[in-house]
Design brief:
This is Glycosyltransferase involved in cell wall biosynthesis. The protein is about 40% helix and about 15% strand. By secondary structure, the chain is an alpha/beta fold. Strand 1, helix 1 and strand 2 (about 45-50) form a beta-alpha-beta unit.
Length: about 375
């Protein structure tokens, strides 16, 4: 039989954040896996449908097509839905309500666990849409066992629908470290990198609030990232001390250079569905100090130092340990690279192929039970 699947390409019309990175890299990895499979009745025919005025990545086995002069949720619910043949892969939290043969990746339920980070319209949209999709679609993917547990806790979907398909790290291998003037000026062994902007659940205010104390011991802070005002409610930034630099969005090359030329990455989030920046940092050979909450202990395991997102004293202690104990720092770098290697886009793409085969009746479901952490 001919197996037909469509990829929801709405993500290509959106800014590249962690969720869109996931969709892009899974699509690329799926394409590589399909190229390696001989054309036969068992190999799915996959098509990427995208809104107009989007940049389509080069693909070999997956065809692509631009459809309809519209964007956003309207495009997804109408133009995309009308052109799906067979099954649908939606990698970015939402998909058409009318498509039941759909594998939908819901990355997190942060709008419920930390609502103060999001605008009221966005909370209402996701609060309504996600439970309906969770009941409607055939399979719900998510990126960590922590997120799977939250989907169950908030009754978004039943446990038997869930498959955990995490992020990967291989995209960092294509980053060629290259400082710009602004990253070169702030980089160095006394620089703590913070990724996450001023969105409340990212908790950068904890590190910024330590600025004067860090300055007293010769440390500075480089904050990477910016928030989307249409979605997030950012806290007002306090006037920072002279040792804090807000870098905004960086290119992959700039970020790679900064991560390789700093003391460590600090990631003090209250909640994360996965936490891609610490994984990228570990893959790049940068020590990470992360929150002991949500998915982060699951993702980083024994490769990171941990502190409570409520305890500035604990964060200061961890920074001092990384700076004053070179052997510890080298151990963290080594363990981080090993830990990051456990997360591979091709493996995750293979799990999507397995889930697709189940829905096509070619295989039986064999899902790992949802649990709190992975080995």
């Amino acid at each position: 039989m001919e197996r037909s699947w469509t990829i929801n390409g709405r993500f290509l019309a959106q800014p590249l954040t962690g969720v869109q990175r996931y969709a892009l890299e899974i699509t690329r990895a799926l394409d590589e896996l399909l190229v390696a499979v001989p054309a036969s009745g068992d190999r799915p025919r996959v098509e990427l449908l995208v809104p107009p005025d989007t940049e389509i990545p080069p693909l070999k086995a997956i065809s692509s097509r631009v459809v309809a002069p519209m964007r956003g949720h309207l495009w997804e619910q109408t133009a995309l839905a009308a052109r799906v043949r067979g099954g649908l892969l939606s990698f970015c939290n939402t998909g058409p309500l009318s498509i039941r043969k759909q594998i939908l990746c819901i990355h997190d339920v942060n709008t419920r666990t930390y609502p103060q980070s999001y605008s009221l319209p966005f909370r209402l949209l996701y609060g309504t849409l996600l439970p309906v999709l969770g009941r409607t679609v055939a399979t719900v993917a998510t990126v960590s066992h922590y997120s799977a547990g939250e989907l169950i806790r908030y009754r978004i979907c039943r446990p038997e629908k869930i498959v955990v398909i995490p992020n990967g790290h291989e995209h960092t291998a294509s980053w060629t470290p290259a400082h710009s003037q602004r990253t070169r000026e702030v980089a160095g062994p006394d620089t703590i990198v913070v990724i996450g902007s001023a969105i409340p659940h990212k908790n950068t205010r904890l590190i910024i609030g330590m600025a004067e104390r860090l300055a007293a011991v010769g440390l500075r802070i480089a904050v990477v990232g910016m928030s989307d005002a249409r979605v997030f409610k950012a806290t007002r930034r306090q006037v920072p001390a002279g040792n804090v630099v807000w870098l905004g969005r960086l290119s992959d090359q700039e970020l790679a250079a900064l991560l390789q030329d700093c003391l460590c990455l600090a990631f003090p989030s209250f909640t994360e569905g996965f936490g891609l920046p610490p994984l990228e940092a570990m893959a790049a050979g940068c020590p990470v100090v992360v929150s002991n909450r949500a998915s982060l202990p699951e993702i980083c395991a024994g490769a990171a130092l941990y502190a409570s997102p409520d305890d500035a004293e604990a964060w200061f202690d961890r920074f001092m340990r990384v700076r004053n104990m070179p052997a510890l720092r080298e151990t963290m770098i080594r363990r981080g690279r090993v830990r990051a290697s456990n997360y591979q886009w091709k493996v995750s793409a293979g799990r999507y192929l397995e889930a697709m085969a189940v829905l096509d009746g070619l295989s039986t479901a064999s899902r790992e039970p949802v649990r709190s952490a992975i080995g």
